[in-house]
Write a structure and sequence with these properties.
By secondary structure, this protein is mostly helical. It folds into 2 domains: about 400 residues, Up-down Bundle (Growth Hormone, Chain: A), CATH 1.20.1250; about 50 residues. It contains 18 helices and no strands. Helix 1 runs antiparallel to helix 6, helix 3 packs antiparallel against helix 4 and helix 6 packs antiparallel against helix 7. The longest helix is centred in the first third of the chain and has 32 residues. It is globular. It starts with a helix and ends in a 26-residue tail after the last helix.
């Protein structure tokens, strides 16, 4: 229990950083002397760094020790918060946010530690709780960011993040045992650089698509360039003796389809995190604190949905809570689209939506864990977190585009989210049953002879 609480504290510190700045963006732009496009880099820089660093840190954890890299991720994250807290210019704040994003290995490393060290009967529930924190932190971040935006300044957001991460790092170093599971090898620097070249252009284009136009040559060109580089990344990984990512494992149907469902659930969750606060401010006249409070009960519900999802997964398989979560989230988003005229209605339907998201988010890493051997847990969970970041970026930007272009943008955006969440549930039903590598003796994934024939 002590180890789980420490891992959860570190994961919560990182999860809060996803959304705490959203209520402050308007004031942040004026304080830093920039415009909306400039301040968008505060979110974009964080997202891009997290997308690239998360699978890299997960792979390093598999190689050198998950506890060691967990502590390192927390230290990097805390350092980034200090840089942003001290920053009074856009450049310094963004630089700090990039460092915070590099700490993105916190989640997959924490899940890997649970997989390696916890009794088998506690693994699913513990992973469910850690995964639910991704949603809990996102909702609480909006509340905390609103309170600090209304009462203090953006500097306090970063000081609190630094303190939380530093305390978690010290506790983890002193009290969490090191994982005994290792994957010998070396760091695939070339693969990491090519992965970055493939991820950064599309994510950058998506984050600016509402300003440039979704059909503009600049948007489509950057997305196409990124897709081409990702194809190069896949080809290189297949020919690399000690790759950053085992492509054969990632394209295995249980892993591939779970990642697809993750993309879709991330789309719906983060789209709603943007929509509900904006609805509260524009339609109900609430301040940033009040807007965040509409999401607070739903975020707390996720705290209970996570262990429930783990228990269901242990008894019936994690496909069930993922499919059920997608259906419940779709129902909540559907009702938000049809009935968002009062604070009470929004509060109630947001709780229903959050229940579904909590069930789904907690099931996804358990499906990944069941489909890969222990030596690849950090790597596989890292890519799952990357996919969630891409889904979050898509959901946020598409929702914003619908609000800007439609007379009834809230209805359109919520209904789109409902359709995407329902599709995630249908994808979950089609996930094939994976073998259980956790029931087999852990064997290190060595370079020979597995990759000897790849040149």
């Amino acid at each position: 229990m002590r180890t789980l609480l420490i891992l959860a504290a570190g994961a919560l510190a990182f999860a809060l950083a996803q959304t705490t700045l959203i209520p402050t963006l308007g004031g942040l732009a004026s304080e830093l002397g920039t415009d909306a496009e400039g301040v968008a880099w505060v979110l974009t820089g964080y997202l891009l760094a997290a997308a690239v660093a998360t699978p890299v840190m997960g792979r390093l954890g598999d190689m050198f020790g998950k506890r060691r890299l967990f502590v390192a991720s927390l230290v990097i994250f805390a350092t980034g918060n200090v840089v942003s807290a001290l920053g009074s210019s856009l450049e310094l704040v963004v630089a700090g946010r990039v460092l915070q994003g590099i700490g993105g290995g916190i989640f997959p490393l924490a899940i890997g530690i649970v997989r390696d060290e916890f009794p088998r009967e506690r693994v699913a529930g513990s992973i469910g709780l850690l995964s639910a924190i991704a949603g809990i932190g996102g909702g609480l971040g909006l509340v905390l960011g609103g309170v600090l935006a209304d009462g203090l300044s953006y500097h306090w957001i970063f000081w609190l993040g630094a303190a939380a991460a530093a305390l978690a790092a010290v506790a983890a170093q002193l009290l969490v045992p090191e994982s005994p599971v290792r994957t010998p090898g070396r760091v695939d620097v070339r693969g990491a650089l090519v992965l970055a070249a493939g991820l950064v252009p599309p994510l950058y284009a998506i984050s600016h698509a509402n300003d440039w136009g979704w059909g503009s040559a600049r948007t489509l060109g950057l997305i196409a360039a990124g897709v081409a580089m990702l194809a190069v990344f896949v080809a290189l990984q297949r020919r690399t003796r000690q790759p950053l990512a085992d492509i054969d494992a990632l394209v295995r149907p249980p892993v591939l389809m779970t990642n697809l469902a993750t993309l879709l659930v991330g789309f719906g969750m983060f789209g709603s995190f943007i929509l509900i606060p904006q609805l509260a401010q524009t339609e109900f006249g609430l301040d940033a604190t009040g807007a965040g409070l509409l999401l607070l009960p739903g975020s707390l519900v996720m705290l209970f949905a996570g262990p429930v999802s783990g228990a269901l997964g242990t008894r019936f398989g994690s496909k069930l809570p993922l499919a059920l979560g997608g259906a419940v989230a779709a129902a909540g988003l559907l009702m938000l689209g049809l009935d968002h005229g009062s604070q009470g209605a929004v509060l109630g339907w947001a709780i229903l939506m959050s229940t579904g998201i909590g069930l789904a988010f907690s099931a996804m890493p358990n499906l990944i864990v069941a489909a890969v051997p222990p030596t690849q847990t950090g790597e596989a969970i890292g890519f799952n977190a990357l996919v969630r970041s891409v889904g979050a970026s898509l959901g946020t930007q598409v929702s914003a585009a619908l609000l800007a272009s439609s007379a009834d943008g809230y209805t359109a955006a919520f209904l789109l989210g409902a359709g995407v969440a329902l599709l995630a549930g249908l994808v979950a039903l089609a996930i094939p049953t994976a073998r259980r590598p956790d029931l087999e003796p852990a064997q290190p994934r060595l370079a020979e002879p597995a990759y000897a024939s790849r040149g």
